[in-house]
Amino acid sequence: MQIIRDLDSLRAAIAALRADRGKIAFVPTMGALHAGHMALICEASARASHVVASVFVNPTQFGPNEDFGRYPRKEAEDSAMLEAHGASLLWLPPVEVMYPEGHATTISVSGISEGLCGASRPGHFDGVATVVAKLFNQVGPDVALFGEKDYQQLAVIRRMAADLDFAVEVASVPTQRDADGLALSSRNAYLSPEERIAARALPRALGDAAQAIQAGGDIGAALQAAQAALDAAGFASIDYVELRDADTLAPVTSLSRPARILAAARIGTTRLIDNLPVLPAA
Ligand code: PAF
C-alpha cells in the first residue's frame, strides 16, 4: 500500500491506478479505524479494482468546544489495518496541504444540514461538505463509501455531490454494531466501563421506538418513551430524538414512506449518535 502526503504524488499515483485496470473506490475517514471502517473498505473492494482511503482529522468540522484536540490519532495502526484489508493507497494530507494559507472557500448545503446535528453543532456540516468536496477533487473516485451511522452526514454529502455535479456514486454501508447493539464509533474509546454499559440504552431505546411506530403506535409517544429511557439510563443531555423522512430528512408525523429514527445524546462528556430505519407496513 502506498502512503502519500502531497498532492503531486497523489495525482501521479491515481493516474497510475487508473492506467492499471481502472475503477477507484474511495473511503474517506478521520482515522482511529475500527471494524465499521473495515466494512466500508470491504464494500469498496467489492465495487472497484482499487481502494483508496484517506485519514484526515478535519479541524473545520469541530466546534470550538469539541474534541478536535483529543480525537484519537493512530496512524501506524490505521495504515496496518488498511494494508491488511487490501487498500492500494492511503492519502494522509497534512493540514497545510488541505488548507493552505489563504484558503477561503466553504461549501454550505442548506436545508438538509440544518436541524438534528446541524442545530447542536453549528458549522459542522459546512466543514464536512467542504473537506469531502476537496477529497473528491483530489482523489477523483468512481464511487465513495460512507457509513449509515452518520446518517445526516450521508444525506448532506449526497446532496452536495449531486448539486456540484461530482461524477461520483455516493454509496452507503449499514451501521456496524458491537454484540450488545452499540454502534461502532471512534468516540466509543472515550467511554468509561460504566458509561459503555449505560450507552447500550441508546440503540435499545431507538429499537423499541422504531418497533412501536412500525406497529402503528403513536409517533410522539414513542419518541417521548425513547427520551425517557435515555434519561433513565443516565444520558446527561439529549440533543434530539426524532423521526425523519429517510431521503429528505423532513420531519415525519405519519408513517407513509421509509423513515429514520435518529438520536444524539451525551453520556458523561461523550456525544453519541445513532439511527435506525423505520418502515411503513408493506
Ligand atoms: O465521517 C467521517 O469520518 C468524516 O466526517 C469525513 C466524512 C471523513 C469528513 O471528514
Tell me what you see in this structure.
This protein is α/β, with parallel strands linked by helices and 282 residues long. The chain has 2 domains: 2-173, HUPs (Rossmann fold, 3-Layer(aba) Sandwich), CATH 3.40.50; 186-275, Pantoate-beta-alanine ligase, C-terminal domain (Pantoate--beta-alanine Ligase, Chain: A,domain 2). It is 38% helix and 20% strand. It has 10 helices and 9 strands. The chain has helices at 7-19, 35-47, 75-84, 95-98, 117-120, 124-139, 151-163, 193-198, 201-214, 219-233, and strands at 2-4, 24-29, 50-55, 89-91, 143-147, 169-173, 237-245, 259-267, 270-278. Helix 2 (35-47) links the parallel strand 2 (24-29) and strand 3 (50-55). Helix 6 (124-139) crosses helix 7 and helix 9 runs antiparallel to helix 10. The longest helix has 16 residues, at 124-139. It is globular and about 55 Å long. The mean pLDDT is 97. Pantoate is lined by residues 28-30, 58, 61, 128, 131-132, 150, 153.
